[in-house]
Amino acid sequence: MDIDARERGAAGGPRGYDSISAPTAKTNLVNETRSLPWGNTEGGRATPSFIQTRRMGMHLGLDTYARSWLNVLLVFVPLGLVSGYFEWQDYLVFTFNFLAILPLAMILGKATEDIALHTNETIGGLLNATFGNAVELILSINALRAGLLDVIKATLVGSILSNLFLVLGMSLLCGGYVYMEQKVNPVVSEANAGLLVMASFGFLLPTAFTATMSSTEKKLHLDENVSLVISICLLVLYFSYLFFQLFTHASQFANEEEGEGEAEGSDSPSLATAMAVLIVSVLLVAINSDYLVDSVAGFSEQLNLGSTFVSLMLLPLVGNAAEHMSAVTVAIKDKLDLSIGIACGSSVQIAAFVSPLMVVISWILGGSPRLTLDFHILESVCVFMAVLIVNTMLRDFTTNWLEGMVLVCGYFMLAGAVFFRVP
Fold it and tell me: How far is the C-alpha of 400 from the C-alpha of 389, rounded, in Å?
């Protein structure tokens, strides 16, 4: 039984509202879970990993990017480089480099997926796990070199919240505009839940720890040590999860991509071309993001915006550009499983890989103070609540446009709170 087909047949289009009832759809969902192109459906239950759902979603979502109007933003790449080199006004440097990184982030994501198409499932998964959030990692490293620890924290937390609230919310909203109701593979929604909850615990623990300390000097020293221990544990957990999915239990997941994924990947560029594009885009992102980070303070002051608002709400939009475009695109194509894999999978990579990795890098580079996982009470509570709200939205394995509106409104509620927050 194809619920979506019945909806289209009832009303002559995908927005047919005289379709099968919601209770019936939810009942059938358990017995008729839709298989993804790579799904292992033994026993009637598909088992895609979060790496696989994110890979396929990014590939399908960015497949038409070469013909996208967003390519016109590439004109800001040289403008950003020139403005930063000649030290123009900070608001110009920030604006030009911000707009320059948007298309570069999408090109970087597309190049990563094109390289993965020339490899096997294991190498492709590792590539996605490493370069999946390269823009956020590059931005954070540049901020760390400049000693802007608060910018790093706000950007990382903002990336998680942007993925869970804005990217996923817009996917549900746009998908719900086309289809009355969309099904969610239970395995996809559960695949990211464990790591997201554990990462939220890893963020809350240092914040609660420092809140119980009285001595400021001793608090900072102990907070650095606690954050290092938690970061190592999160990295071990993340790589253990990858090892579980890609090696020890790989037979339970997909090892072949079929159907639409193969068809759309047939026109992919050669491996040499994809690698060249990846290298050039990484270099350009590194330079543009360096100028972007250096101009945050001046941009915030000149426009009378708090640096926390700029770092928490604006900078993550750069890193999530590729995810946002891909997730919305595949949701409109009624592939909501892939949208969830993109949004939640990216959040997992930021929370369990990029954030703890930055803490470890700050220890390796030395200097004082070091980066910690104490993201302050507001940010930590927002991450925890975001994970809770998303799990609540997906608990019945069906979605509609109203649930997307809930998440989008949650994002703007957060933006309002951060905007009026006293530095």
Answer: 15
* Residues with Cβ within 8 Å of residue 257, at least 6 apart in sequence: 37, 38, 56, 121, 265
Distance CA 68, CA 46 (A): 33
Q: Which residues contact 214 (CB under 8 A, 6 or more apart)?
A: none
**Burial level of 335, CB count in 10 A (0-12/13-18/19+)?**
buried
Amino acid at the residue 72: V
Question: For the chain, first and last CA: distance in Å?
Answer: 55
Could you tell me the two tokens for 28?
């059938």
- Assign 399 to helix, strand or coil: strand
Residue 218 has, within 13 A of its CA and on its CB side, a CA count of 6
- What values do phi and psi take at 303, rounded to 5? -100, 5
Contact assessment for residue 344 and residue 192, using Cβ atoms and an 8 Å cutoff: yes
Q: What letters, b where the CB count within 10 A reaches 16 and e where it falls short, cover 295-313?
A: bbbebbeeeeebbbbbbbb
Encode pLDDT of 77-119 as tens digits: 999 999 999 989 999 999 999 999 988 888 887 787 778 777 7
Model-level pTM? 0.79
User: Distance of CA 396 to CAs 25, 174, 313, 374, Å?
Assistant: 11, 19, 30, 33
